[in-house]
């Protein structure tokens, strides 16, 4: 995947010589249709057998949604993109999981002004939670899932129960860095510390959605669980 520094251009590449396309940010209805067609091609590439091709396609989709607001397009295709994200989070490893989690964030951000954002969150929350809490999963992927779960809940959740559920999931991750019973702090490798930091940052973001009374109640519960 190549992003041009001097022009708004995203190259969608794969292992195949005939599968390279350009997303060029110019004006005009016909150009928008071309742009959307290239997004569809990237969606197709995200189903390829090659891990490299899938990862590049997911990254290109994220870049495409960063460069243009494609809400009408996403209203028609969000289910397909959710399927791509879920597949890569379940079966992918490392960079593919990272790319899938980032795409999930951009999808919900792009839909954050419409009701479908909450529906997308409810579709992706289970697989994000599984990937985040899987102790055998790649740490980079788990870290990105922590960011995505928190940001997605912040943008899309209107039900307090959904927010607190996400917070409980994040707490279950960063609690691994809390003091042990003897008061001693755990000593983790940097990658584990980065994961716990991401989960804690996400937890703090979601605190912004909670009333002071609820925060007080939650604080007592978490303190007692130490």
From TrEMBL:
Transmembrane segments: none annotated. Pfam families: IFRD. Residues 1-27 are annotated as: Disordered. Residues 11-23 have a biased composition (Polar residues). InterPro entries: IFRD, Interferon-rel_develop_reg_N. Residues 15-221 form the Interferon-related developmental regulator N-terminal domain. PANTHER family: INTERFERON-RELATED DEVELOPMENTAL REGULATOR, INTERFERON-RELATED DEVELOPMENTAL REGULATOR 1. This is Interferon-related developmental regulator N-terminal domain-containing protein. It comes from Cherax quadricarinatus (Australian red claw crayfish).
């Amino acid at each position: 995947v190549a992003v041009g520094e001097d022009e708004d251009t995203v190259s969608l590449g794969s292992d195949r010589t005939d599968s390279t396309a350009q997303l060029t940010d110019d004006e005009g209805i016909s150009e928008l249709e071309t742009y959307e067609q290239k997004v569809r091609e990237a969606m197709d590439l995200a189903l390829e057998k090659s891990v490299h091709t899938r990862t590049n396609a997911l990254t290109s989709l994220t870049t495409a949604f960063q460069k243009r607001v494609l809400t009408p397009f996403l209203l028609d295709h969000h289910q397909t993109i959710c399927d791509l994200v879920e597949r890569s989070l379940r079966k992918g490893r490392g960079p593919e999981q990272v790319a899938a989690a980032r795409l999930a964030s951009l999808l919900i951000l792009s839909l954050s002004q419409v009701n479908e954002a909450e529906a997308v969150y409810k579709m992706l929350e289970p697989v994000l939670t599984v990937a985040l809490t899987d102790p055998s999963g790649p740490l980079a992927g788990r870290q990105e899932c922590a960011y995505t779960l928190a940001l997605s809940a912040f943008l899309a959740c209107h039900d307090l129960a959904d927010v607190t559920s996400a917070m409980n999931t994040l707490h279950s991750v960063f609690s691994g860095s809390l003091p042990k019973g003897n008061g001693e702090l755990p000593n983790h490798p940097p990658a584990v510390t980065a994961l716990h930091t991401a989960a804690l940052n996400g937890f703090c973001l979601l605190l912004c959605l909670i009333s002071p009374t609820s925060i007080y109640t939650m604080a007592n519960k978490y303190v007692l669980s130490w």
